[in-house]
Amino acid sequence: MDQVDVTNGAHILYYYTNHDAYIKNATSFLINGLIQDEHVVFIDSEPNYMEVIHSLTGRVGRDVLERIHYVNHVDFYYEHGMMLVSEVMNNFAKLFAPLQQDLRAIRSWGQVPWDENGNNAEQLLIYEHRCDSSILNAQMLGVCAYDAKRIPAYVQNEMMRSHEYFMTDDSLAPSMFYRDTSRSVIIPSPAVHMEMQSEMDLYKQKLDFAHAVSHEVRNPLTVIRAYAMLMLNPRAEMGEDHIRKLQAIVDYVDVIDHEIAHIINTEQLLSTDTLWQKEAVSVKPLLDEVLHMMTTKARTQGVECHSLMNVQEAQIYGSSIGFKLIVSNLISNAIKYSHEGSSISVHANVRDGKLQLEVRDKGVGMSKEQLEKLFRKYEKMNTDKSGQGIGLFMVKKLTDHFEGSIDVKSELCAGTEVQVELPLLTESSIFVNGKMDG
Prior knowledge:
By secondary structure, this protein is α/β, with parallel strands linked by helices. The chain has helices at 19-35, 46-56, 62-65, 73-77, 85-96, 121-137, 153-159, 190-231, 240-271, 283-300, 320-336, 368-372, 391-401; strands spanning 10-16, 39-44, 68-72, 106-111, 141-147, 165-167, 171-174, 187-188, 279-282, 304-310, 315-318, 343-351, 354-361, 405-411, 415-423, 430-432, 435-437. It folds into two domains: 10-188, Rossmann fold; 199-437, Histidine kinase-like ATPase, C-terminal domain (Heat Shock Protein 90). The chain is elongated, with a radius of gyration of 31 Å. It starts with 9 loop residues before the first strand and ends with a strand.
């Protein structure tokens, strides 16, 4: 539906032949409106309404579902047992006038019941003509749905004169009988378009991921090549400067190896259950391992890494690789968003039955808006820096899974402080349904 020009409203005629496709298209139409915070009106039968609500459940919250304005289609179109244009337009005004009081867009989906014995085709055509004017004047997006198997062909053709677009179960195109007949492009139906859009978003995310990987790997390789070329100079002597460059080569190779391992672990997190399997995990050796690698990475970026560990024999109930991902992501972000020549601090201690981890930097910091979006998947702290944009999304999911908490404080241009607390595993710990209690 996004490909349709609805800037000034649109009136769509939908002839459906398959019930499942009808429910799918109605659901897509409504959920697009709910996501965009529009007024959403659904005029249909009670069974269809219940089917759509069932389809929406789990995709949006209960509070969002309550924003749907539902009206029974028989009550709306046949209030007195037959269709009278004046009565239907009066119902139209009573329903939509209050919604037009604010600046939010309005979209409406209405299935018009057809009764061969009692329906007045002339009244129906007059209504659709007036409805077209009302919808466009109100700049609404409206769908009028009919069972194609029940509507006579001559009525179908006539109704296409009062609808800007003509829709079937799987396509949407400008009506050839409507005012402007020069357009002929075929546009996917709402459900088909939504699936295409989701696939396109996934494809873009994969491209972004590949782009980030190329930066993470190629940037250190560029430095390695430059230093290696200098050392290949036959006139060069192995002085302190050359030794320093050799150490830098080792550091950068270690960084590359870590980045590749991190990518592999990230893919495991997103595609398997490996990281969710919990057991007793000793914290200190894992912290030492991550700090060794992160200190090397900080050195390659011209950043000092200060650490203070006081965790004794502390254990948590989680996974080794998951814990390392939490710590390495937080420290890696602190390094990435620090200025060259600055420093970061990493503190870990045990207090009140919890492991407390604090990572602090004096780097670019974040705005209030960035903080609000911090744990969204593919949301990056700073678009100027390369990266996958899923690090803190991973950290939050793992922290929650380990029954811990995370708190982030940041100020733009003043740095960021991240605190993670994870419950310690003790001899008296009790497990209920796989969770630690006490």
